[in-house]
Amino acid sequence: MSETPPNTLQYRFDGPEDAPVLILGPSLGTTWHMWDRQVPELMKQWRVFRFDLPGHGGAPAHPAGSVTDLTARLLATLDALGVHRFGYAGCALSGAVGAELALRHPERLASLALIAASPRFGTADEFRQRGVIVRTNGLDPIARTSPERWFTGGFAAAQPAITEWAVQMVRTTDPGCYIASCEALAAFDVRAELSRIGVPTLVLVGSDDQVTGPAEARTLVAGIPDARLAVVPGASHLVPVEQPAAVTDLLVRHFSTAWQPAFESTTGQMAIPAAPVKPVLAAPTPVAPVAEIAPAAMQPEPAGRPDRYETGLKVRREVLGDAHVDRALASADAFSGDFQEFITRYAWGEIWDRPGLDRRARSCVTLTALVAGGHLDELAFHTRAALRNGLTPVEIKEVLLQAAVYCGVPAANSAFKVAQQVIREETTPQE
User: Is the pTM of this model over 0.70?
Assistant: First the structure.
């Protein structure tokens, strides 16, 4: 444990003093205890360093209004302890700190894991509106809804003690520090810089995460040159708490095999072997893997053109959301069922899953085509899909303005009305 000056962070160590250091960073509203189930296994190989965000878990309430500030405080803490090189795993807000470390201080990082993370978290308005809620009503509204954001419904119902623990973590956070962290997330955006992250990176996400889900994870993997994707089944946003064994296994495998050598002290250079093209981590057979491990790029498909229905259904759910897809499939009958199967297999399993364009680009193309065709019903749910795929409201506006030039002002006028309503619904915080 530590005494904490304003420019450092509250921390604790677990594990042998002579082992390499592995840092575990918490998400907004949580404490270092979110990692309790991982520590016993990780400390067998590493000296585990955990920290609390300002004003969280009893840490002094010195607000940090940017990811850069949080990163500087972490490095100041490590410098004071003589820790110069380390592996790093960060969840959500601390994942943003991990990306900042990789971009601005690559010489300090040996390996990186980004958990429930994104190159840009939602929209700036979303987090600023959350700050307004806290200023007006305190943290209780956020605390009461945190289990819905963090856990699957089944887990929350089966684990009432953990659910209540999550609520109390948020309630005991300093409101000013929570608001400052929201401002940090509102301003964070490294989408244009992902290609400069050179450290071996594991991107880990819960399959049911509705906050920063598989779509955001795939954006990270597509942009980071040496990145692998792990999707943990049956988990939502706080995946280390909901599926601790799976997350522990994935972290051990990643940090055991992807630890980059240090910079050579005399030249400032390091020898990095050529990275393989997004290798797949093989699960031991015959035991089923605890999580899906997939490369960023599509692997060559075996001869014979495998059925793309299951792939299409998965992509369709990731882009449009489970509720929309469930409604569409439930309404299918003998007349329309073949059409639902057709679009799932070919539109979503073939076209949307092709590697040539990322999902943001495909959303731009789709929005434009729907404006041109006057398909306003589909424009509504594809506007929601565009937000899920990482487009901001400003970017959607630019797509519609571009469409106005080439598709016609009347078509764009109708499109703006539809998109405006959807964006209002999607960016207004739910109390």
Answer: no
